[in-house]
Amino acid sequence: MPNLKPLIFAQKQKLFALSQRSFQTDLLPEGAKAYINGKWMNSIGATTFEVKNPYSKEVITEIANCDQSDAQIAVQAAREAFQKWGFETTGKERGAILNRWYQILTQKEAELGKILTLEQGKTLAEAKGEIQYSASYFDYYAGEARRIRGEVIPAPVLNRQHFHTREPIGVVAVITPWNFPAAMIARKAAAALAAGCTLVVKPAAETPLSALALAQTAEEAGLPKGCFNVIPADHDRIGDISKYLCESHDVNCISFTGSTGVGRLLLSQSASTVKRVCLELGGNAPFIVFESADIDIAVQSAIASKFRCSGQTCVSANRFYIHSKVHDSFVQKLGEAMSKFVCGNGIEKETTQGPLIHEKAVEKVQKLVDDAVSKGAKIVQGGKIIKGTTCYEPTILTNVSESMEIANEEIFGPVVAIQTFETEEEAIQKANSTRLGLAAYFFTNCMKQTFRVSRRIESGMIGINEGAISSAEAAFGGVKESGLGREGGSQGIDEFTQWKYICLRT
Ligand code: NAD
């Protein structure tokens, strides 16, 4: 059994100086550890790296800095575990474990939420919401594990039976970003484990603690050793580890969520072993408000879509196209709603907007705003870094045009960049003028327009009169350079299974 003595963060007093609260958890190991083959382990080189609170910048803890050798051990553990988990368990048995995992996550929502806020910065309410969202995948795939069906197909001759069976693809290497440290792992892990696959998880360097806490809850749920391994690593080591994972014959699938640039790299590195690569990549979501829209609903949805995680989500509304006739009313109502925001430490109850993940992220947002203003955009509100912090003022920019960087790049910050349009055709053309196609949103009360526009928008997901679209039951994913494959829904199982045709002479 791993050492599960309660961890009291070494810097507890300092860390919670702002909230005057202390925090203990038995969801993380004592000392800096990775989780491999059901054991809490140091990295082979015994090296560690610091995990920092993005708001206070204080060191939360040090954690094992894994390298390629650790990754190899983890892959070996997952390979061995796969023989049993993949072929000697039933869907019903796997589903029962996933269901227990769901229940544990639900019970420990508050504790897991705190860990998440500490390392990621988002507000506690959002962090708990992310734990619920993560749990919902285990709930959903606990049921789906029993419904992974094959087919009996009519043979063209009488003395044969033809079958299509579905098999787990094998060992899945999971590489995830820092914006949803629990949910991006849960969305992959729940489906992969339901299908009978085993996993090696490489979480983002900024947010490895939620991944390790998930490992602890997996063990409590009774997941056999080796099925879920976590190898944290810092930025300097990730390149080597990922290259190994992509090129290893013992890894059958790379499941990545992150930026399009890194996704492209992993796809090319995986070419030598022709393995399956599932990519959930960047977004550049258009948010179109047509003339007939209910402006209050559009504003409410803009808040939900744009400001979750302080704008650092892949499905965040990125380019606002507002019909010129409703522009002023939308801007005014949105401004009023945004004036209620409180920026600060995510752990504080009153905070509605946490910090961005690090200095580089806030500087990038400021650069985009400065570029837009220099080319004629108007700041309606916000527009600055909040002094001495990594928080960025919730911002509205109007008079934005296509020539500005902000109209073409993923902002990943709390900035609403608004352009106007006159016709439906113009709005569709602008919405599609990107190589990315993850999420899109539009607002209308015209039924015919609803169908016309949803057919023509080039995007994997569309919210119509709705700004919060994610759900375990639905297929999440993008088109164009936003990715390959889908997560969630019954489609999520497809990523981790392969078809086998069996021909039986009778
Ligand atoms: P990122 O691509 O920098 O990092 C994601 C993961 O890749 C991390 O684990 C990181 O350590 C690893 N990584 C970084 N450089 C690497 C390299 N050279 N080789 C191999 N691995 C490497 O992305 P991020 O900044 O952590 O996250 C933000 C991005 O993720 C945004 O573009 C966002 O849209 C995207 N995202 C997409 C989805 C989705 O479901 N489509 C969900 C969340 C985030």
UniProtKB/TrEMBL annotation:
Task: Check the record and name the InterPro entries matching this protein.
Answer: Ald_DH/histidinol_DH (IPR016161), Ald_DH_C (IPR016163), Ald_DH_CS_GLU (IPR029510), Ald_DH_N (IPR016162), Aldehyde_DH_dom (IPR015590), Aldehyde_DH_Superfamily (IPR050740)
Q: What is any Pfam family matched here? A: Aldedh
What are the catalytic residues?
Answer: E280
The membrane spanning regions, by residue number, are none
Q: Which PROSITE patterns does the record match to this protein?
A: ALDEHYDE_DEHYDR_GLU
Q: What Gene Ontology cellular component terms go with this record?
A: mitochondrion
EC numbers on record: 1.2.1.24
User: What family classification does the UniProt entry report for this protein?
Assistant: Belongs to the aldehyde dehydrogenase family.
Q: In which pathway does it act?
A: Amino-acid degradation; 4-aminobutanoate degradation
Gene Ontology MF terms in the entry:
succinate-semialdehyde dehydrogenase (NAD+) activity
Which source organism does the UniProt entry give? Panagrolaimus superbus
Name this polypeptide is given? Succinate-semialdehyde dehydrogenase, mitochondrial
Domain Aldehyde dehydrogenase: from-to ranges: 40-502
Question: Per UniProt, which keywords does this protein have?
Answer: Oxidoreductase
What GO biological process term is on the record, naming one? gamma-aminobutyric acid catabolic process
